[in-house]
Amino acid sequence: MPLQLLSVTSEVYPLIKTGGLADVAGALPAALARQDIAVTTLMPGYPAVMQAIGEGEPVRRYENLMGGPGTLRRGRAADLDLLVLDAPYLFARDGNPYLGPDGRDWPDNPLRFAALSRVAADIAEGALGSYAPDVVQAHDWQAGLTPAYLHYNRPARRPPVVTTIHNLAFQGVFPAYLLGTLGLPAEAFSLDGLEYFGAISFLKGGILFADHVTTVSPSYAREITTAEGGMGLEGLLGGRTRYLSGILNGIDTRIWDPAHDPLIPAPFSADDLAGRAGDKAALQREFGLAASPDAFLIASVGRLTEQKGLDLLLGALPALLAEGAQFAILGSGDRALEAAFTAAAASHPGQIGCRIGYDEGLAHLLQAGADALVVPSRFEPCGLTQLCALRYGAVPIVSHVGGLADTVIDASPVALRQRVATGFQFTPSSEPMLIDALRRAAALFREDRAAWKQLQQNGLATDVSWDSAAQEYAALFRKLLTPSA
Ligand SMILES: Nc1ncnc2c1ncn2[C@@H]1O[C@H](COP(=O)(O)OP(=O)(O)O[C@H]2O[C@H](CO)[C@@H](O)[C@H](O)[C@H]2O)[C@@H](O)[C@H]1O
């Protein structure tokens, strides 16, 4: 009988995605299945999700869930076993799951995600009868109240809960007066409860009341216990290091497979990188760059935010152009950064190309056609784009933080000699050090193509699949079920 895991998440690829959380929640179930773990995913019934499961099978009805009715429906979509919280007054809104059309957080976000966590706790307690999980995995602040409800309710059945932090920058902090509305007792407003600088924090609840906390890389697990990386929660996290671990993310190697990728014009593999030339030409066409096979083409893909250090990249563009390099960027986010990269492309036609928006196909083309992928993050819990880059032969140029530090081997003279390097790292995350790394990369590309090809082949040979992460999660879940643990 497989171990039954309830995964609680606010987004799942390919049903709804704003960031890497969706990729992880979408890919882990298949990898865990190979470890004899059956995952059921609880998520909100956004319109796209309701459409994907149709009617589903109603398994529980709520007359009053945070102020309105809801139905929990069982269904299957995208190869996932789903429990969907169909509560139209909370979730029947198109577009971004967290933001209204004005780009601001929905004002009722605390109610929306408390409802998700409340239902998760009910399922954990055994409310469904037909299904009761052995272990619960609560992802990010949106599921953070799950172990808090279990703590304050003191149910007879209380399976272990693992809280997984994908990004400590988002904590779900809301006014304390909401406690009653969220169905939490007044005692929860305390230092050893949800209280956080005079407000309440959903993620604090997730950390405090979980049996174990994971984050998505070993380095980030360390960084979040420091004043610099802990975002105000370092004290709590530092006091719980016995229950805190970092498990490095993978990527879905079926979706990201350069030998069989319908989203790129020319397939390739580690043994035969020749196809990349066709992909590079297509990328140059698509981004309006000069059709030059020998130009050093650097790409960037992701959310345009300060976290990702894209303001540093903006400052480094003149140096990059001075190296004769080309630059292609795909992303969306901060309006000022969107405007700045759009303007940079307009003033450097043929050298800089920019696409604002979200586009899976272009993301694949960028990875397949670019010579290098730059990720200059200020902090990075894991990072998925550099993993895709490794698998696609786009040499990653990354800051030495979090999961970036854990997944890229810098092309130091020793690593080059030993033929183990996979990319370039720089530290600290500053403009001068980024420029230095870009210059190092440009020089190697120009002067030693054999060494460059070795970097690409080492990247392609790196295991970026979910297999070892799934083994680590499986070992953790099983340990939590062992009485002596
Ligand atoms: N405009 C666009 N068009 C197409 N595709 C786009 C895109 N913008 C982003 N993507 C894709 O979305 C994914 C984002 O992955 P990241 O690791 O950068 O996630 P993010 O920072 O959101 O997530 C957080 O959670 C993840 C998962 O744990 C951590 O890896 C990460 O460090 C943490 O910040 C990548 O697969 C990327 O290709």
Automatic annotation (TrEMBL):
Residues 292-443 form the Glycosyl transferase family domain. Pfam families: Glyco_transf_5, Glycos_transf_1. Residues 5-237 form the Starch synthase catalytic domain. InterPro entries: Glyco_trans_1 (IPR001296), GS/SS (IPR011835), Starch_synth_cat_dom (IPR013534). Pathway: Glycan biosynthesis; glycogen biosynthesis. GO terms for biological process: glycogen biosynthetic process. Its EC number is 2.4.1.21. GO terms for molecular function: alpha-1,4-glucan glucosyltransferase (ADP-glucose donor) activity; alpha-1,4-glucan glucosyltransferase (UDP-glucose donor) activity. ADP-alpha-D-glucose binds at K17. It is an enzyme of class 2 (transferase). Keywords: Glycogen biosynthesis, Glycosyltransferase, Transferase. GO terms for cellular component: cytosol. It catalyses: [(1->4)-alpha-D-glucosyl](n) + ADP-alpha-D-glucose = [(1->4)-alpha-D-glucosyl](n+1) + ADP + H(+). It comes from the Bacteria. The keyword Transferase applies. Synthesizes alpha-1,4-glucan chains using ADP-glucose. Belongs to the glycosyltransferase 1 family. Bacterial/plant glycogen synthase subfamily. This is Glycogen synthase. The gene is glgA.
